[in-house]
Design goal:
2 domains; alpha+beta
């Protein structure tokens, strides 16, 4: 749900209706509650991603009915939909679909801050209550099953006859501002770390993405255009990202520094550039490993 928190918060501030959906159980179809979530606005607007888009149309249709309460819905992913969505097979999926106004007010600021949390909701038939949010300091006050699920260490959903427990832990994100062989290698290598990788070759869009980064996250700026890459770099510096890596030669680093200094951005101490631990990396795979090693060290304070 972290990925839709910004959009949902904006809708709530504007007084726009928004319904939120997340998966509860599937027939061996992979999902992550912290990443798989959708938000729907009237007229068919849709934000987020769930199961590769296999349920988007069905959930959108249900959301347009504008129910006043949260509910649990049973949906079917056909084999054709599964193939299109890149899923291994079809199957039945249980989802929660809840008006955002029916969820706890404190949920969205906590998700925006990328806080790990536990949402405990009551189930009555197929209706879902607003629930209570617990954080790590007060998790002992939660129901025993919820506290145990939270201590499990990852994101998880547990459904019983009368209770829904949704544990959300943020997945570190790596935003890469360009495509190419090095980016491809970063995507593959970051998967080993369990990181979510967002690749955005468009500098303008990449600049906007930087505003969503938290101290858990990393940014890698790649690009031969000094102005475009420097704009993305400036946006990364305005974020609290835990690691900022700038790929490019020493001359490129100097040109970016000059561009930033001209715009009164002079504290470049958070930039690792040229990005990567010096291991003599030459191939895209070696460069990716060097960058990720440096990012892990930065996040660990080493």
């Amino acid at each position: 749900m972290y990925n839709v928190a910004l959009s949902v918060s904006a809708c709530l501030r504007a007084g726009t209706r928004v319904d939120v959906a997340w998966p509860l159980a599937t027939e061996d179809l992979p999902f992550d509650p912290s990443l798989d979530a959708l938000a729907f606005t009237p007229g068919g607007g849709r934000i987020g991603e769930m199961l590769g888009g296999a349920l988007d149309a069905q959930l959108s249709e249900l959301a347009q009915r504008e129910a006043s309460v949260g509910r649990i819905v049973e949906l079917t992913v056909t084999d054709v939909d599964a193939t299109v969505a890149g899923l291994p097979h079809g199957g039945q999926v249980r989802c929660a679909l809840v008006p955002a106004t029916e969820l706890p007010d404190e949920l969205w600021p906590l998700l925006l801050d990328r806080q790990p949390l536990c949402l405990v909701s009551s189930i009555d038939g197929d209706e879902l209550s607003a629930g209570t949010v617990y954080l790590e300091p007060d998790i002992d006050q939660a129901p025993h099953a919820a506290a145990e699920a939270f201590r499990g260490g990852g994101s998880a959903v547990t459904v019983s006859d009368d209770q829904l427990i949704t544990v959300l832990r943020p997945v570190p994100r790596l935003v890469v501002s360009a495509g190419g062989h090095i980016t491809d290698a970063l995507v593959d290598a970051a998967a080993v770390l369990g990181w979510q990788v967002v690749v955005e070759p468009n500098p303008q869009t990449a600049t906007g993405l930087m505003a969503t980064l938290s101290p858990l996250d990393s940014a890698v700026i790649i690009g031969h255009d000094v102005e475009a890459s420097s704009r993305v770099l400036a946006a990364a510096l305005e974020s609290p990202a835990g690691y900022i890596g700038a790929l490019g030669s020493h001359k490129m680093q100097e040109q970016r520094a000059e561009w930033l200094a001209y715009r009164d951005v002079t504290d470049l101490s958070r930039i690792h550039g040229p990005a990567g631990v010096d291991i003599g990396a030459e191939t895209p795979g070696e460069i990716a490993i060097a960058i990720l090693a440096e990012a892990v060290a930065a996040h660990r304070g080493r």
